[in-house]
Amino acid sequence: MRDFEGYGRNPPDPRWPNGAKLALNFVINHEEGGEESFPDGDPRSENALTEGSTAPVKGRDLAAESMFQYGSRVGFWRLHRLFTERGLPCTVFAVARALERTPQAAAAMREAGWDVDGHGLRWEMHIGMEEAEERARIAEATAIITRMIGTPPLGWYTRYAPSLHTRRLLAEAGYLYDSDAYDDELPYWRDLRGTPRLILPYNLAHNDVRFQRTALTTGEEFFQYIKGAVELLLTEPKGRMLSVGLHNRIIAHPGRAAGLAKLLDWVATQPQVWVCRRGDIARHWIAHHAP
Q1: Is residue 12 part of a domain?
Q2: Sign of CA dihedral 250, 187, 167, 1
Q3: Of 5, 30, 101, 172, which is the most buried if we count CB atoms within 10 A?
Q4: What would the pLDDT profile of 198-241 be if each residue is shown by its tens digit?
Q5: What's the distance, CA 251 to chain centroid?
């Protein structure tokens, strides 16, 4: 059943650590190598969220393949440097096949102490999948991420559209929470067949996909856009959570990454902002806001 009111006029005080008013979570989407491609036996090349995504290419798109490879060959490492040089944590939404094909990146994630959530066996939507197939894909993705990172993923985010079974299957697979929701700015509990289920909402508004949809064109615009969101949330009563979505093949291009670097430097000067991993938020909510 859909809930149109949620917390309503009385959202809870999240009581973030050290008196922070905003839990700010940067999410790197690690997808390159998990997309549809001819070498993997698919009938077409994925070109979503690439610089040529409006090009009417049918069949194999070598340009799109190369743009995905930029994300893993160059983009990831630029983002890794931006965060580790500043000592800032982040979360990775990892497509399992992509992680398996980039063991150096997986090692860097482990060394940095980032948390790695599941983002599918491949970069694919689960809507319409048969339940048995989806269960098997979640199990295989979980096993790959656990092997590559050393610990099982706590959370999961499906590419845009989950199925009607996804949340239940994730709970059965042992996931602590999922982020397949866009309906709030705070975590919340939802009843799942009589058992409380933790949801950490995500959002696509504060996300570098805006570059691909021509809403943003420069790194400076990205900086100002996210900075404005943070400033507004700091003025609101109690506290909020903000997810900022990043992609190796989008924000990591130099002209855009300059804006991200500026944003990270500015965020570090804000004492009421708690820059954290997604798992940190989940553990805090469980400890302080029991269902």
Answers
A1: no
A2: negative
A3: 30
A4: 999 999 999 999 998 878 999 999 999 999 999 999 999 899 99
A5: 13
* Residue 11 lies inside a defined structural domain of this protein: no
Which residues, at least 6 apart from 240, have a Cβ–Cβ distance to it below 8 Å?
A: 14, 21, 22, 23, 185, 186, 233
pLDDT bucket at 52, cuts 50 / 70 / 90: confident
Segment holding 244, helix H or strand E? strand 240-247
State how far the Cα of 107 lies from the Cα of 162, in Å rounded to an integer.
29
Residue 274 is assigned to a structural domain of this protein = yes
Does residue 5 lie in a domain region? no
Domain of residue 166, residue span: 17-288
Burial status of residue 283 (CB atoms within 10 A of its CB: 0-12, 13-18, 19 or more):
middle
**CA angle, 15 then 16 then 22, to 5°:** 115
CA-based angle 255:273:12, to the nearest 5? Answer: 130
User: What is the amino acid identity at position 77?
Assistant: W
Q: Which of 277, 283, 254, 280 is nearest to 25 (CA)?
A: 277
Cα angle at 216 between 46 and 262, to 5 degrees? 110
CATH number at residue 110: 3.20.20.370
pLDDT of residue 248: 98
Mean pLDDT of the chain: 96
pLDDT by residue (tens digit) across 237-266?
A: 899 999 999 999 999 999 999 999 999 999
Q: Provide the domain count of the chain.
A: 1
